[in-house]
Amino acid sequence: MAKKQNKLKVMFLGGVGEIGKNMTLFEYGNHILVVDAGMSFPSDQMPGIDFVIPDYNYLIQNESKVAGIVVTHGHEDHIGALPFVLRDLDVPVYGSKLALAMVGHKLEEARIKNKKLNTVNEGDVINVGCFQVEFIRVNHSTTGCYALCITTPRGVIFFTGDFKIDHTPIDNKPIDLTRIAEIGKSGVMLLMMDSTNAERSGFSMSERCVYKNLDNLFAQNLDKRIIVATFASNIHRVQQIINCAVKYNRKIAFSGRSMINIAEMAYTIGELKYPREAIVDIDKIGKIPYDKLCIISTGTQGEPMSALTRMSQNDFRKVVINEKDTVILSASAIPGNEKLIYNVINNLYRMGADVIYQSISEIHVSGHACREELKLMFSLIKPSFFIPIHGEYRHLKQNISLAKEMGIPEANCIIPELGYSVDVDKKGIVRSDNVPSGNILVDGSVVTDDSEMLLRDRRHLAGDGFVITIISKNSLEINPPILIARGVRIPDKLSDDLRESMIKELTKDKVDDDIQGIKQMLRKLIAKSLLKELKKKPMIIPIIIEN
Amino acid sequence: MAKKQNKLKVMFLGGVGEIGKNMTLFEYGNHILVVDAGMSFPSDQMPGIDFVIPDYNYLIQNESKVAGIVVTHGHEDHIGALPFVLRDLDVPVYGSKLALAMVGHKLEEARIKNKKLNTVNEGDVINVGCFQVEFIRVNHSTTGCYALCITTPRGVIFFTGDFKIDHTPIDNKPIDLTRIAEIGKSGVMLLMMDSTNAERSGFSMSERCVYKNLDNLFAQNLDKRIIVATFASNIHRVQQIINCAVKYNRKIAFSGRSMINIAEMAYTIGELKYPREAIVDIDKIGKIPYDKLCIISTGTQGEPMSALTRMSQNDFRKVVINEKDTVILSASAIPGNEKLIYNVINNLYRMGADVIYQSISEIHVSGHACREELKLMFSLIKPSFFIPIHGEYRHLKQNISLAKEMGIPEANCIIPELGYSVDVDKKGIVRSDNVPSGNILVDGSVVTDDSEMLLRDRRHLAGDGFVITIISKNSLEINPPILIARGVRIPDKLSDDLRESMIKELTKDKVDDDIQGIKQMLRKLIAKSLLKELKKKPMIIPIIIEN
Question: Within this chain, do residues B334 and B222 fall inside the same structural domain, yes or no?
Fold first, then answer.
């Protein structure tokens, strides 16, 4: 029996659209190692939802087993759920200096104290329960990113995290391919690898490639104010923008809460370098001539409340866009955000600014490995088994097709799906038990895993609005039916007709005494009429008042 | 005075995001020429709206002036508003055989009879009021597409419509560059040109390029059922898919209403060619072996009700997807549809199908001219003035930057915007009078140009739901306050507390007798509590019953 329990289980919790990203669990006997605890953005089908975190009830139920949480890097989709998880679980967290600085900031905002945050450096090896975890430097679109080499009682797992291969990164710290080659040589049972760019052929460009184009843009816009938007966490990008600004004698103002916070954080731990005197407060840029200023801003995804979006709507007091501005969007669109971003670009153009964005200039590179990089990783790691992670189903499929090209039989590959665990040892990999592993929706201050009815109602209201009718059952003569509609427009004539029909039905001899029956009748009457007259199907709520 | 009135005015009606696309008016003295009458899809900010048409009140107000409507081609964004416009206006319509077949079908569905549809052939010259219109063959992603050479009393206007330059089109009818060169030589006052691909460098690929890859896919999938999704109106694409199917001895079934309709229409007028016996009804494919069947389907944009989307949700009785299917999406994403399309792809993969789409294979070419084609057009037409049309603001700006490269001063270019007309003659081009030119929203059977409040309510309801409270003012003891919420979840305890607070406030000595005052008080009380406890701001509707 004991032997039967000691399987090595891999489990995937949470994710909207993408799978195997927000949270991964490794369980063996009485030990659970958690990798990442991130959040997702809600889908179009989740109106009003702020964000989505993994359903981590399995962790709560097995609290005594949870030996620790390792974070691969400091992006929201890998750390965003920690304030929730750490409120419920008292476990140590391990990660890079930058990642933990971001985690610390989050926990502070959430007023969670005394958490065990343990900084690990590249090359460090730690024990988490029965798991040995080695941290290997990788490149990505932020700094302090690690792949994990997890030695388990059943074999070695190489978990890439989000990664790319950059031979010429800004900090001269390329991915540690030498160590990866060694690990591959000593035998890896299972590779779990980032699939985000598995559809893209070739190699991702080096972050360094951005500089030449950025520099050109600064040189071409000597008389303009320059506003560059990028992800705050893209430390090397921010560094390159700062370097350009300094070279062209411009002061730098950070704009947007996360940009200001992360720039400070990264400076403090020495990962972002700039002369302090080059920085001006965004509130004090009024005194600086346009041609001596560079604003580095958030808002590359057209997020409604971000600094750049508000600038584009003339709703950002500190920066009023005009024809003396050149705005550079140094980022690409996350699928689903295209329209929001294009709205920002169109509006900036309308306000007279010149706008530079990826469709017309190469001012961004991806942080994820493309097909040739993925092949290189297969080639070095030489795993027996493969689980593609980080991506939509289509990306995971493409990564498996690469695995096949690299000689890994399809039977040795498994696509992770919510709701299952994967059992793996040197003999085989199989889909195994069910695990509670869905999503928890954060809706204002409400955190819920039971939201389907709520969301169905919101979608219904969004498309067709609602109609409420209030009937004073026993005093219809003095209190005629009230009809209230929002999100659907009922013409007066139709409203009168409806009230009349209702009275007629309610005063019939044979009218049902049963409240539910009356409600049902009213609902049908109104629905039928509105579908016929308006071709709309609003939510209909009849209320019967008894007096 | 008379002379002052006889300006040549160009006006742009309608459009969501894109400008100068759905409907363009040319007015001189007592003559109005209308070019196109199309629809747009609603933006994310228009929940529940079916589609959007130009506000054509200006045409109704000036009915006697409207000499005719010329349609450039049969795409929805150019003809979709005709059933509305022709219900209100009795004017002749001119267009190609295919475009008018599509218009005729639309009018039939809308039960509009006896309309004056006049087929024009390439090279035809017609008079519409004081305007002479010549129809010049262009290439695009459907057939029967014309550019217009409009001779006005003030000078010649060349209007490209949607176009690309395809030297090797499937019907061997390339764009008539010779005639375009002649027109350019004889002097063009104003060029109005498609801007959709003004961000893309180089040339668009020829439609013929698709064939080789399609053929390869058919050859590689001999034992599979092949399902190809494309736009029904892309006649040449459908033709190439048919040619492949016939070559590989497969029967062809059309799937999706518009595919079935347009395939029949195009066959009837001779623009689509196939052996009748190769076609099988989609309801009768059960008898045909998988490896002898090719289904040509709608649904490339992930439209919720389309055939392919329903197949991907196992909700299309006629075609149940499985691992013996290869699905080819021969189209690209219209911005904003990315997530819907990727959902379809992910779901098809999950059902076991192999999926081929643009990110991983070249099975689509654009129907719009890229930068080198646009330059060629500038070079042949040599216009004095330029108005970029068909595109978002960013595309129009890029087209103007091309115009500048081609020697047209920026002062001679105007970006069309809703709400203005443009006056042009050989001496100059200026932005002129205001014109009523917004959008009309089609919401079920309701057609309205006054929807901002309605949409604001829907957006509010979508994000935060609503709370209704019903107070029987004079019988609070027998009828305690009723509280109803949808789209926001109020815990029982909070609901009880709210009711209690309301009673407390309502039974205070000094309570206001004014109904509006009481409502305001209740609204504030509930809003404050829900924001504090739930961090949500639902719509709050207090109802006071007087009895």
Answer: yes
Residue A435 and residue A473 in one domain: no
What pLDDT, in 10s, does the model give residues B80-129? 999 999 999 999 999 999 999 999 999 999 999 878 999 999 999 999 99
Per the structure, the count of domains in chain A is 3
Q: How far does Cα A441 stand from its chain's mean position?
A: 13
pLDDT beneath 70, residues of chain A: 1-5, 510-512, 547
| A131 shares its domain with A237 | no
Q: Which helix (H) or strand (E) holds A350?
A: helix A338-350
Q: Which of B461, B487, B545 sits opposite A545 (nearest CB)?
A: B545
Question: Domain range spanning residue A517?
Answer: 465-545
Looking at the structure, do residues B397 and B311 belong to the same domain, yes or no?
A: no
Q: Helices marked H in B360-449 — which ranges?
A: 371-381, 393-405
Q: Tokens in use for B262? A: 């347009």
Question: How many angstroms separate the CA atoms of A418 and A436, rounded?
Answer: 8
Q: Which of A404, A427, A451 is the last residue of a domain?
A: A451
| B383 & B505 share domain | no
Widest distance between CA atoms in chain B: 89
Q: Do A461 and B486 touch (CB under 8 A)?
A: yes
Indicate whether B248 and B394 sit together in one domain: no
Question: Which of A334, A448, A457 is most worth mutating to test chain B (most B CB atoms within 10 A of its CB)?
Answer: A457
Among residues B425, B451, B477, the one where a domain terminates is: B451
Domain assignment present for residue B1? The answer is no
Question: Which one of B339, B357, B472 makes the best mutation probe of the A interface by having the most chain A beta carbons within 10 Å?
Answer: B339
Residue A140 known to be catalytic = no
Secondary structure string (H, E, C) spanning B223-258: CCEEEEECCCCCHHHHHHHHHHHHHCCCEEEEECHH
DSSP one-letter code for B544: E
Specify the pLDDT at position B435.
81
Q: Chain A contacts of B323, Cβ < 8 Å? A: none
pLDDT in tens, B373-399: 999 999 999 999 999 999 999 999 999
